[in-house]
Each structure stands twice: as C-alpha cells, then as structure tokens.
Amino acid sequence: MDGSGAFREETIVRPSSSMPFMSVLRKRMARLAVGTLDITFPGGGFERFGNPGTGAPGLHGAIVLHNWRALSRMLRSGAVGLGEGYMAGDWDSPDLTALLTLLAANMDQVERNSFLGRLTLQVDRLRHFLNRNSREGSRRNIAFHYDLGNDFYRLWLDRTFTYSAALYDRPGLTLEAAQTRKYARLAEAVGLKRGDHVLEIGCGWGGFAEYAAGTLGCRVTGVTLSQEQLVHATARMKAAGLDHLVELRLQDYRDVDGSFDAIVSIEMLEAVGEDWWPTYFNRLKARLKPGGKAGVQVITIDDERFEGYRNSSDFIQKYIFPGGMLPSDSIVRRQAANAGLRVDSHLAFGLGYADTLAEWHKRFLTVRADVMELGYDVRFLRMWRFYLAYCEAGFRQGLIDVRQYVFA
Predict the structure, then answer these.
(1) Residue 224's closest CA among 234, 214, 211, 212?
(2) How far is the C-alpha of 77 from the C-alpha of 366, rounded, in Å?
(3) 3-class DSSP state for residue 28?
(4) What is the DSSP letter of 248?
(5) Comparing C-alpha atoms, which of 283, 294, 280, 208 is closest to residue 246?
(6) Strand, helix or coil at 245?
(7) How far is CA 326 from CA 55, 198, 206, 291, 375, in A?
(8) Closest by alpha carbon to 293, among 394, 377, 192, 369?
(9) Are 297 and 266 in contact (CB under 8 A)?
(10) Which of 31, 146, 188, 343 has the most crowded Cβ, counting Cβ within 10 A?
C-alpha cells in the first residue's frame, strides 16, 4: 500500500497447499468481510487475502511469520494464540495496531476454534476461574498488574500518573489535559463541592484524589489493594500539602464503613469479577448518604458479545488482568437497578480510550531500553505492546467501550 492508501500491484507468491495449516488458513481468510491482510510466510512466500474495496478506506494489515509455529498458534487459539506468538517473537508486523484493528473488524468471520483450540480454551477458563476475586484473590490479582512497580508506570504515563481513559472532549488537548478533563467531568457529574466527603473505590496513584482535594477542597477517602499505588499516592498527597484532606488505605472496598456525600470509582469495576458485581453495587448504595451520587467509569463489552466473552478466556485475562471481567452496558444498568440505584446520566467515549492507548503505546516505545533496565525482558516488552495495540483495536472497532455512569 502506498502513501495515498492505494494498493500497488505486487507479485503474489503462494506457499504450497501441502504446507502445514495452509488449507485451514485459506478457508479462514476467505471469510474476511472487510479490508485486506498480507501474510509473508517463513521462507519468503507472500499472499494477500480479502478485498481492498470493502470496509473502511485503508483497512489493511500485514503480518510476517518467522516460523510455522506462529500460524499453528493462531489457528488453534485465535487472539490468545496470536498474542502468545507475538510474545515469543514468532511473528511481527510493520503496523501492529493496524493489523489488530483489521482482525477485530473481522473477528466473527475468522476466529473459530478447532477441537484443540476448544481444549486450550477450557484450560484457560479453569485458570481464569482459579483467579476469582475473593479477598485474597483480589489482593493477588491487583498486585500481579499494578505492583509491577511505580518506576515502570512512571516511564510512560503522563504527569497526572493516570492509568485510565482520558476524555478528549475539546480540540487540541494533550494527554495530561484530557486526563484532568476526565476527573473534572466526573466530579461535576456527581455534584462535588467544597467540604464534601468523597469515597474513591480504587484510588490508583492518587490522580483523582489530588484533583478533588486540591482543586475542589473536598475530603477524600481512597482505597486500593496495590501496595505500590498506596506508597506513591500517600507521598503525593503529602508533597501537595493535601494529607490533611486525603486519607488513603490499603483496604478492600467490601470492608469500607461509613457514609459519604459522593463516591467515585474509575475503571475498578472491571477488576471486581462477575460473582461480586451485586456486592459492588450494593456497597455503592450502602455507602452513599441520602441524595448522594456515585460516578463510575468502566470499560464495557458489546451486549451481543457478552455471553461469548463470558464463556471464554481472552488474552487480557490470561496475561494482563487475572480475574478481570468486563460487564456490558445492560448488565451495569441491571446490577445498579437491582441494588436500588438509577442511572442519572451516562457518557460513552470509546474512541477517546483508543486515542489514550495510542499515546501510551507511542510513549512506551520510546522507553523500551529504560523498561529493560528495570529488569524486564523482551517477552515482557512484546506482551505489553500487544496488549496496548489489542485494546486500541477493540475500542476503534466498537467491540469494547468506556462509559461514565452517574448513579443516584
């Protein structure tokens, strides 16, 4: 494809059909509904699949297979196998995000598991079940991801130290400004004012707490299960002169007592686990003072895809967020209603998350050497690259979304 987005005439060198997996691959790739995919095979063979006249202009991906194991992983285990192959260095792409966006656009057509794939899926589902979010399981699962170290996240997050979707609701915003806009909108939506006492469930590295206390003059009680986050956030409040307004605890949300004028929870519900969704929403209701509101930002999966997602185990659950589970929009609303809460307002901004992830990925690429100096290896770097690009592709194709709900 040239710089104009047009496809050049190229010589297509097709591997022999007798090569392992080629007949299965061609059957799968014949199902491409939109866009085109270029595959370069081990030994240099090349083939293009799909139709450049279908789908969004320029929807095109390319993959270079370094060995046949890469192909067997993909055909057996779908997106999980694709990610495992990338982590192992079995394949590369000149544009990882473009490739994953193309595959996301064609997911229903190409991701159908073989018998061996279904066996692999059951093993992964068992692993996911064993990562359930009991109190001990939650501490373990949160530590797995967030306790990678503050030095690691500091390398590529913006100065607000925020690891959630930014809100690009005005033209020309930097990542840092868009993160602050996210905080401001949530605070405004729940009606925070000076002197209010707000509970933050999942306080992260203290970005929202600093905004609520420093900008609005609120009292904040924040809870996290990450020791690393607590250390950083506590020092941050002290350095900002806000420790008299902010109390941060290493505490499970299920163990919080008291009542609050408002509650904010930013991308915490994804880590709760399906079994504890009723508990989470009942805690919101129980901890709110009469007339108070709760602002919850959460990643959601498309309603029509939820059952298939629920009965599988994806790359994120296996390698990035053990015990994680995305709800759908209808499930969030139903769980809230069951707890006696109503949806007061709602905002979806999935493309803003795609832009956030693109910025994180760009930053991550510039600090690869620094990450390795922290002791992480090439496999870890490739795992994180795949994770960031995989998520961006999902948001760009609408398979997942991010939403701010206000419950009253």
Answers:
(1) 234
(2) 31
(3) helix
(4) E
(5) 208
(6) coil
(7) 27, 25, 23, 28, 31
(8) 192
(9) yes
(10) 146
**3-class secondary structure, 273:** coil
Among 107, 163, 152, 14, smallest CA distance to 301 is for 107
According to DSSP, the residues that pair with 263 across neighbouring strands are: 199, 294
Q: Which amino acid is at 44?
A: G
What's the token pair of residue 220? 């904040």
Q: Which residues pair with 297 in a beta bridge?
A: 266, 404
Among 391, 393, 400, 402, which one carries the catalytic annotation? 391
* Cα–chain center distance at 298: 10
Per-state percent for the chain, helix, strand, coil, to nearest 5: 50, 20, 35
Q: Supply the pLDDT for residue 66.
A: 95
DSSP 162: -
Handedness of CA 348, 354, 355, 361 (dihedral sign): positive
Q: In what order do the strands lie in the sheet with 260-266?
A: 246-250, 219-224, 197-201, 260-266, 288-301, 400-407, 343-348
Cα atoms in the 13 Å half-sphere on the side-chain side of 44: 1
Residue 102 above 90 pLDDT? yes
Q: pLDDT per residue over 212-267, tens digit each?
A: 999 999 999 999 999 999 999 999 999 999 999 999 999 999 999 999 999 999 99
Q: Which residues lie below 8 Å from residue 82, measured CB to CB, with a gap of 6+?
A: 73, 74, 103, 315
- C-beta neighbour count of 261 within 10 angstroms: 20
- Encode burial over 76-97: b for 16+ CB neighbours within 10 A, e otherwise: bbbbbbbbbbbbbebbbbeebb
pLDDT tens digit sequence for 118-172: 434 444 444 444 445 454 545 555 554 556 789 999 999 999 999 999 999 999 9
Q: Which of 40, 98, 295 is nearest to 183 (CA)?
A: 295
Q: Which residues contact 210 (CB under 8 A, 6 or more apart)?
A: 236, 237, 240, 242, 246
> Is a pLDDT exceeding 80 seen at residue 370?
yes
Q: Annotated catalytic, 391? A: yes
Spatial distance between the Cα atoms of 374 and 149, rounded to a whole number of angstroms: 9
Distance CA 301, CA 162 (A): 22
3-state secondary structure of 126: helix
> pTM for the complete prediction?
0.88
Query: 104 is written with which tokens?
Result: 């996301």
